[in-house]
Amino acid sequence: MSFSKAKIQRFNDVKECTPSPATYNVSLQEKVKLGLISKPGTYSKLGSPTRSETGSVHSTPCFQTPTLPLKKKKFLSFKSAKTSSQQEELREKIVECSNKDQYIRDLIEQIEEMTGKVNNLERENLRLLEEKNGCEGALSDLRQQHLEDNLKRTKKYEGINTNLQNVNKQLRQVRREYEELKSQNLVELSKLLSNIAKFQKLYDDSVKQSREETEALVKKLEDSEAKVVLLEDELRGKNKEHSKKVETLLAQHETLLKKFEENQIKAARLEGEFSQKLQEKNEEVEALLKKLEDNENELREKNEEHSKKVETLLAQHDTLLKKLEESQIKAARLEEEFSQKLQEKNQELEESEAKIALLERKNSEEHSKETRVLLKKLEESQAKVTLLEENFKDVKLLTDLQICDKIKEVEDGWKQKLEEKQREHEAILKECQAISEYTIIQSEVEKNQVKKLLEEKEQSHQALVKKFELLEEEVGFMKSEKHKYQLSISTFKDTIEVLKKRLFNSDRDVEQLKEELEKCEEKILTYEKKIAELSSQLLETQTANEELEMQYESTSKLMQNQVQTIEKNLLSKVEVLQNEAKQLKKDKQLLNEVLSQHHDQQKLLNEAQKAIEKSHSLIYDLENRQSELEDRVRSYKLKLDEETEEAAEIRKKYIEKSGKYDELAHQFEQLLQELDKAKDRIQELENLIGPYQEQLEAYQNELVVLTNEKNVFENEAKELSLKYAEILGHQNHSQKIKHIEDLKTKYLEKTKKNVDLEAKNLKLNKLIDKLSRQIEDMNKPGKKYKLVEDKENLASPKSLKGTQSPGPLKDKN
């Protein structure tokens, strides 16, 4: 057989010397160290094995079996005849040599068995190490995914928090606008009620005046009838006297009658025009009342809609706040669980390190025991074992130093990651500040727009004031015409009285007067009918208003029911999410249990390995560690080179930014100089203005008086604009409705984004479940993993383990 990890130079450097068979007696001769052969001719040289790519520096003790010299037939001669005593000595020596050869063969067989067991154990160790590396890689991938998911979730939660803050700000603005609208509507309603009361008073006053005028006319007619009766009595006495004058008076009477008829026609025209104007005014009053009622209804409906929208927004805001609180609680729980897991893993690592140290001690003790046993059997292998132990200690010291360096590098890496996270948080804060500045700019733009609208409204208000002045002029003109008509009526009444005095005998005059009275009574009746119709219309409007209020209450109840159903649906979704979170916790607990079982299995396997491992396995592990550490050192060197390049780039950027900073500092100094100059200029101007301060104070007092007058005029203008708004309706309401619709669209978009994020979260959870199942399948004991053959290193010492090639101590005969 051939031993692995043997130096090829051992066989090339062997001195050609063969000892006699008696030298194998340990008690008689000196010890032969390291299996070197002193005399040539007795051992057959074997071909050296091919040099492998991964040949080790340290070699195991190797031997070359001695071949006995060929027995040559000696021809007995008389001279060469030996005595019987010499022959017996030779026979004894031959027996001793044969016994020693058998003893050596037994030892070789035992060594071969031990090496076979060692090879099997090394294969099992390699398989277990591969499984361990695979599991550790899967766990590291899971940890990386978990960290990435946590970072993504934290970013999402921060985005949701910013969105919620923006929504809160918008809701506050909406509430402020709602309160302002409420106050404006209350003011407008109070003014509308005051205007309605004024219109009612005017209407009552006009009705009272008309009634008083009709009563005065009736009284005058009654007085005239009484006078007519007295005059008839007097006329009957004086008919005889005036019979002669009647004929003359009849002619005059006919002329007067013609004039009277013309005057009646004029009076009828005037009365018709007056009645038409009164009707027009009544119609205008009715139209105004209808407009006021319509405006009131519209205002109520808009207020109701606005209140409903605000209630829905508040409900949505409450639900979003609840979701945010739940998500924060979940995030806190996840962070606590993650921190607990990290602590547990750190504890496990510390325990594993302690166990490794104990196992190393045990292995060293076992190794010492085994070496003692082997020293009794094979004393020649002591020197090599001592050398290997020294190498092991050196490698151990190197590995300890490298592990310390790695720990420091890991700590530095974590510190850099923490600094990067802090920078990211600062960048996020800067973005939030930029967003807030952007919202402030938008609010200022909206304020400017509102100012423009106010200017337009002021212009419209001025146009309305002009129209109001024109209307006042028309009212004055109507009043003057009314005065003229009253004067004409009074003159007409005087003419009637004169005619009554002159025409005592005419019955026609009395009948005409009666007809006029009847007409006046008919007009009074028509006015009373109109009043009754208006009162009935008022009752109808009141009933309609009550019906509208009932409808409002019913719609509000329906909306409340809808809101309750929406709340129930949201609560059910929240419960579903809570159940999913519980399932995730259960899955995590199962993963922890699987990991604990895996750790237990690893512990058992390690204990089995430690009971079986010997000097060769320790040396092999140390060499593998050396190669791995060398690879890591190379990778760390490459990383250092990359980091030095990055540091050079950062220095270049720092130099550029320092130049910019110097320029800004220079500009800042220039600005400070300009500020000093401006301060000096201000002081000079103050010194110049000193004697004129009294005049300035007087001007300021005048300005205060003028501002007070301006405020008075503005209040009057506001009252007039409110009256105009009562007539024309609110134009800003449509803009507010558009603003609320924009808010709704934004809210819908955010809800869609939230749904997408939840779907992504579910996908990630499914992926975690798959990976956990794969880990469970990997940890099942029933599966066996095939070892991959090293095709490139077939002739290496690793691949030659366990082969049945003839060794240096086997019998070749």
Automatic annotation (TrEMBL):
One cellular component term from this protein's GO annotations in UniProt: spindle
Keyword Cytoplasm: yes
Residue ranges occupied by any Hyaluronan-mediated motility receptor C-terminal domain in the UniProt entry: 659-798
Domain of life: Eukaryota
Pfam families: HMMR_C (PF15908)
Keywords: Coiled coil, Cytoplasm, Cytoskeleton
Coiled coil: 104-369, 404-774
Chief site of localization: cytoplasm
Keyword DNA-binding in annotation: no
PANTHER family: HYALURONAN MEDIATED MOTILITY RECEPTOR
Protein name: Hyaluronan-mediated motility receptor C-terminal domain-containing protein
Encoding gene, per UniProt annotation: AUGUSTUS-3.0.2_07824
